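Quick one - inputs below.
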Amino acid sequence: MARAAASPAQQAAEAAARTAYGRLLALIARDSRDIAAAEDALATALARALGRWPTEGVPAAPEAWLLTVARRELGHGRARAATAAAAAPAVALLAEERGDGPSEWPDERLKLMFVCTHPAISARIQAPLMLQVVLGLDAARIAAAFLVSPAAMGQALVRAKARIRDAGIGFAVPPPADRPARLAAIRSAIYAAYGAEWDDAASRSDLAGEAIFLARLVTQLAPDDPENAGLLALICLCEARRPARRDAAGAYVPLDRQDVQAWQGDLLAEGEAALRRAASHGQPGRFQLEAAIQSLHNHQRLTGHDLSAPLVGLYDRLLAIALSIGAAIARAAALIAAGAAPAALVALDELAPRCRDHQPWWATRARALAVVGNAEAARAAAHRAAGLTSDPAIRAFLLSDDFLAAQ
Amino acid sequence: MQYALIYRETAAELAREKREPDAYWGAWNAYMGAMGAAGIMRGGAGLLQPPTATTLRIADGEWQVQDGPFADTKEMLGGFVVIDVPDLDAALAWAARAPCASAGSVEVRPTLPPPAA
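Output:
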């Protein structure tokens, strides 16, 4: 379901509101560790601001005003259940008034991200939790992106916040020894929010903008770990291609046939810059390698040079440090492009026991079989892949003669 | 666990069966084929178009027979399967792959346990 395109001013207001929401929530929840109560208190403060500011004027220090009201609300234990959604216009108003100047308040959002991705919190709820408490998204929107019912998502979020409070998970930066693993957990949650599939299929989630925001945030707040910039680069370089993934009729367009003019130049530039910054640390990692792979894919299309051999090399390095089915299948696809379809088939056969119901495996196998001239088996594999996708455009592409004809 | 996946299709989607049968059936055959190959199917049936239905009610001992399905709703029952998968997430993953998931809806419901012997 596509959302109506927002104007640049609306987008700017939304982005500013997201910034203010997480910053205030982090400050309110920091001492009490009770995120649910902090959310209620903040919602109450924002609702009150919405009632008073338009007539009384925005206070000189709006963040301080909100913080004071919210903390008083929290102290009195009278936090009411008001929805954060109803308060969003007040956050936007606040952001407009505040301008872009530096805030006098400390930015505690990194601690908030560490709390949301604490090992004591179930891995499956970490990304939804972060989207809600750092960005203020409502449970229904998060639920839709993660393919669960709004009620189930709401309950899981409530349980997770209760666990943070009851287990006494501290709002703190972890000790240096734990920091790399804890930052990795934050990145995993952000990547889960992006919800990307391999091989340039459409992202399942419409939370790409939110994921980019969070990736920028962790890159800015924890610049010491180059994998953060690697993650930002990866998401930007994939997301830049989104407008070209469907043609005017809504049909799926694979990477090698996309109109590169439709790629988003600002995201490409941001991604390439983040990748260069990350690489300057000289500490390669999973996300930097994945970003480098996407960068090569893009360069191949932009320059027309055949980069399939270096691509296979990058996949080998990636698999050496982070074994994943998706990367192994993508390496097989790179082998096909490099003219080694028989080797791709051997590699795919090794993955077979774990890929019986995995669409990209069947689609890649179909292409490899077509290249080696086994047309009948290729069609059967493409048919199986089509039965395993949930994307109507990709299903139609896999069932079309086009899919196996062009290589 | 066994779940029924109950497929509902919009009028526009049902009309595709006549208008572009190859695309319509190609998608359903691929989907059903993948479920068959996964070895999770336990039963079910596809249904002919809703106008072929006849609906019966007995009120005060009187038979009321009516042409057409139970009620005219935006989405019509197109068929159902019963699958055996580990949990709700797995059932939802298969529901999402149904062609009508993006042109109607798929209801996922646990089946009752078989009656005690």
